[in-house]
Amino acid sequence: MPSQSTNDGLLRTLGVVGAAAFVVTNMVGSGIFTLPALVRVNTGGAMASMAVWVAAGVLGVCGALCYAELATRMPDAGGEYRYLERAFGPLWGFLSGWTSYVVGFSAAVAASALGFTAYLDPLLPAWNAQAPLMEGVNVTQGSVFAALVVLGLTVVHSVGVHSSGRFQSGLALVVVCAVWLLVLVGFGSGNGSWSGLAAHTTARSSWWAALLPVSYAYAGWNAAAYMGGEVRDPTRNLPRAIIGGCGFVMLLYLAVNALFFYAIPEAKWEPTIAVGYVAAERLFGHGGSITISAIIALAMFGSVSAMTAVGPRIYYAMARDGLAPRPMARLSRNGRVPVTSIVAQGMLASLLALTGAFEALLIYIGSSLLLFNALTIATLFVFRRGDRAPAPFMTPLFPLPAFIFLGITLAAWASGLLATPGPTLAALATLSGGALIYAAGNSLGWFEQDGNTHPSTRRADH
To answer: Which of 376, 331, 314, 350 is nearest to 101 (CA)?
Structure first.
C-alpha cells in the first residue's frame, strides 16, 4: 500500500500489524521476567500476585480504551505530550515530554538493556558481565555492552520508519512465539506442581504497593499512540493496535506468571530478579535454562528496540511546537524519521546504562509513567466537553474506564508513598525539576512559541 503524508511531514506507512508490534514489543520486556518473584514475595501468595497482574492488566485495558479515542481525535505524533499540551497548555505538555525523555524512555531503555545483558550473560560462559571494564573503573563490561546495544538500535531506527516497522514486526513475531512456546513446553514438561498456584505465605508488603512496579511491566500499551502520525488509516488501525496489543499481552503475562508458580515450590520463592532462569532450571534442567535465558533476552531486546523508536516521536512533536531544541524536529532526508530526536534519546539512554543501575529504576519509572497516564486520561473529559462531536472511536461505557483507571492509580500512588516513599517522591521531584526548566526556558527565551507554529498550540476548550 502506498505511503500517505501527514501535516507533520511524517509518512503513514504502518498498518495495524506494524503498530500493534510496537505495542507488544514495548510491553513484553524486562518487567515480566524480573518482577514476578518480587510481587509474589511481597503479596504472600500466587493468587494475590495474579490479582495484582490482573488489576494492572485491567488498568492497561481501561487506559487503552481511553487512549484509543484520544489517538483518533488527534492522530498525529506525540502521544501524551500532544494530548496534555492541547488540553491543559504547553507547561503540561512540556512536563510530559520531559518526563518521557528522562524517565519513560531513556531510563526504561537503559533498564531493559541492562536486563537483556543480565539474561545474556549465562549464554556466554567465557564472559563475565559483572567484571569491571578495567581496573580502577567502576563500570562493568555488562553495562558497556548494554550501552552499545542501545547505540546500535539507535542506528537501526534512524534509517526509516518503513524498515523500522518491518524490523519490529519480525521481532514481535519471534518474541511472542518464543514466549508462548516457553509456556506450553513448560506446562507440558510435568516437572512442576499445580499446588503452587494455591500456595500462600505472609505478605511482606502492601498489595497496592505491588501495583506500582507491575505497572512498569505493562508500560507500552500506549506505544502506537506516539506513532499516530505514521499509521495508515489511523481512525481504524490505532484503536485495534492499542486495544488488541494490550489485551494480548495481558493474557500472555498471566500465562507466564502461572508457569512460574507451577515451576517453583513455595519454599523456594525468593525476591530474585532472574526468576525466569530459576523457573526454567527447575522445569528443564541447566540446558533448558540456557535456552529460556535466550528467549527472555530476545524479548528484552525487542523491548529496547521498540522504546528506541517510539520515544523520539514525542521530542519531535515538542520541537515542532517550540518546546524543545529546533534540531529535534529534523527529519532524515530519505527515511523521514526524527533522526536527531532518536540520537538524543540514544545518547542519554546509553549513559544511564553505563551506571549499571536496574532495581532502583523500576518503581521510579512505574510511578512516573502511571502519573502521566492518569493525567492524560483526564484530558478526555476536557476534549469531550469542548468538542461534543463524536470521535471516530468512542470509549465504550465512558466514563467508567476512565474512573477505574484514575481510581486504581490514586490508590496505588497513596500506597506507594507509604510503602516506598523514595522512588515515588523521586517521580514528583522529576516533575518539579521539569517545571523549573520550563520556567527558566520561558524567561531566558529558550522556547520559540508563537501560537501559530502548529495546531497543537490551541487549547482544546477554546
So the answer is: 314
